[in-house]
Write a structure and sequence with these properties.
303 residues; DNA-binding; Helicase, Ruva Protein, domain 3; 2 domains; single chain; 5-stranded antiparallel beta sheet; N-terminal domain of MutM-like DNA repair proteins; alpha+beta; 4-stranded antiparallel beta sheet
Amino acid sequence: MPELPEVEVVRRGVAQWATGRRVEVTQVHDERSLRRHVGGTEDFVERLTGAVLLAPQRRGKFLWLPLESTPGVSASCLAIHLGMSGQVLINEPGDPRPKHAKVTLTLVTPGQAAREMRFIDQRIFGGMHLTQLAPSSHPCGSIPATAAHIAPDALEPVLDAEGFYALLRARRTGIKRALLDQQLISGVGNIYADEALWQAQLHYARPTETMTRREARRLLEALRVVMDAALQAGGTSFDALYVNVNGASGYFDRSLQCYGQAGRPCSRCETAGRTTVIRREPFMGRSAYFCPRCQPRPRRGRW
DNA sequence: AGATAGTCCTGTGGGC
DNA sequence: TGCCCACAGGACTATC
C-alpha cells in the first residue's frame, strides 16, 4: 500500500525521466483509471497529448506534474494517485506491456531516446486525471484543485509540533483515526500510523483531546523518523504491488517493528528483558497492530 | 462533527 | 483438484 515514502520514491523516479519531456502519444488501455477525470477519455487524451510535463510534486499520497502553460490559459496538471496498487513505470518503447497497464504516455525530448511512462494498477483504486492548479501552502505554491482539501503532510515543515498538538486537541476521536484522516495530516496510511504509534508508545484508541504537548511532539517526530527511514530503504513492499519506476521493491518491510508483526515479540520489550507479543485487532474495517505493554489501552478509548 | 456504510476492484485464500 | 465466496483496503459520498 503506497503511503508517503512510497509515493516520494515514485516522484523522484518520475522527476528523473519525465521532467521537461513532451507527451507525444497518450494511450488509455482502461478507462476506469480515468474515473476522476472530468470530461472523459477523449478530453484526457486531447489535452495531455502534446503537453510538456514539468517537475513532479507531491503532498501526502497525491502526485502531480504541472503542464507547461500557455500564456492566458490557467495552469493545469496531470494528477496521479496510486490508490492501493498503482505503479508508475518507466520503460523503453516496445517493452512488453504489463498485464494491468492502464495508461501509457510516450515521452520525448530532443536529442534523447523516447521513453514510455506507464500507469499500472491491479485493483483500480488509483488513477490519473487532469485538473486545474490552485494556490496552496505547498512549497511549490500550488496544488491540484482535486487535492486542495488535504492537509500538509508529515514531512512538510509548515506542520510543526505546536500546530499538530492544536489540531489533535480540537478533535474528538481516536489518535489512529486522526492520523489516517488526510484532512488533518496527509500521507499517513495504516503501516506508518502503526509504526509511529509504536515508536511513540501510544495506543491507537487514545482520545486526541487528552494528548499532551509532549506526546504530540513525540508522535510527529516518530512519524518523521519512520517515514525518513522508509524513504532511505526505498519504501515498504510486501509483495510485487509496490515498486519504484524501475520495477524494484523497497526493503523497509524488514525494518517494521509493529505493523504486520502479530505474534512476534515486541523488540523494545525484548531489549528490556521482557517478552510481549505484538497484537492485531480489527479496526475501521482493517487492522491495528500494537504492543499491549508499551502501548497500554486507555481507560476511555476512542475507536 | 464524528461515525458508519456503501462504492469502486481483483487476487488470494479458506472452506468444503 | 476445483469451485465459491468472503475479504482487504484509500478515498470519496451519502446518511445518521
